[in-house]
Write a structure and sequence with these properties.
seven-stranded mixed sheet, two-stranded antiparallel sheet, binds 2-acetamido-2-deoxy-beta-D-glucopyranose, TIM Barrel, 267 residues, alpha/beta
Length: 267
């Protein structure tokens, strides 16, 4: 989202306020009644990774800022910690957008894994418990962005992300992506043979996300589920009737699970 005018002092106290904000215990305490409904008369304004031009991506502060700027939906990427907690983070490795390299205690965690046919080397979120991930601080991905909030905010969980949407002063939807499900299901095991996708849908159910597009339930808690992995979307379509978006990259780029390129799949 782009930078708009705001009172710098108020904004700063807002940011510091959310850095100190105790996210637990969950769920959100906000009553769902009487909130301004989501607008449905014009295209949705979706805050991709939060207001990440201003504040490091997928942090609580980036999402709260996006809501303040008028986002209809906040968008995120769901991965998992080693101990099976779903987190909001874009890359399978922590290297580019956190300070993991400065943590000597984690120096021996670097690994090389095959990710969708490519050997990727780095510090993988699936090798860190949530407690360890919470020690890291997020930083901007690109040098041309505002660097002043680097090192100030931690990685958040999927539940914390949901609580930010539910705590908003008006109805704000969520737009989570099931990210790299093959890698996650290879490296993370949940009790009773549950898969990443089961855990994902379970979390949505816990907070009341359900219903087809524009249904009463959907309008109260709007959601779009997105993925580059068609198998995951088919699997979860058995579990929830929330709307799903199949993402297609460049037409030569394979899907995240079936390794098909665009002309090879029909939906
Ligand atoms: C990835 O690394 C393995 C083990 O070193 C190697 O056998 C394989 O050819 C590599 N794959 C690619 C796509 O580079
Ligand atoms: C959907 O659920 C049914 C009943 O549990 C199961 O038999 C079927 O294999 C599932 N389909 C997919 C695509 O997971």
């Amino acid at each position: 989202m782009s930078l708009t005018c705001f009172a710098p002092f108020l904004f700063l106290s807002f940011i510091l306020g959310c850095a100190a904000r105790p996210f637990y215990p969950l769920p959100s305490k906000m009553s769902n009644q009487n909130r301004q409904p989501m607008q449905t008369s014009r295209p949705y304004n979706i805050a991709h990774r939060g207001s990440n031009g201003e504040i490091p991506e997928e942090t609580a502060a980036a999402y709260m800022r996006a809501i303040e700027e008028g986002a209809d939906f906040i968008e995120t990427d769901i991965l998992s910690s080693k101990d099976g907690v779903l987190i909001c983070f874009h890359d399978v490795i922590l290297d580019l957008t956190t300070d993991v390299a400065n943590h000597k205690e984690f120096a021996n965690r670097k690994r090389t894994y095959n990710v969708q046919g490519f050997n990727v080397t780095g510090f993988f979120s699936v090798d860190f418990t949530l407690k360890e991930l919470k020690k890291l601080r997020v930083k901007q991905r690109y040098n041309f962005r505002d660097q002043q909030y680097n090192g100030k905010f931690s990685i958040i969980t999927f539940e914390e992300f949901i609580s930010i949407a539910l705590d908003a002063p008006r109805v704000v939807g969520i737009y989570p992506e099931i990210k790299n499900p093959v890698l996650i299901n290879q490296h993370v095991k949940w009790p009773n043979g549950k898969r990443f996708e089961d855990k994902f849908v379970e979390t949505l159910r816990k907070y009341g996300y359900k219903g087809s597009y524009m249904s009463k339930d959907w309008l109260e808690k709007p959601i779009f589920i997105q993925s580059f992995a068609p198998t995951s979307l088919v699997y979860i379509s058995n579990l929830t009737n929330s709307p799903k978006i199949f993402l297609i990259d460049d037409v030569t780029m394979p899907t995240q699970d079936t390794n098909q390129v665009c002309p090879e799949f029909t939906l």
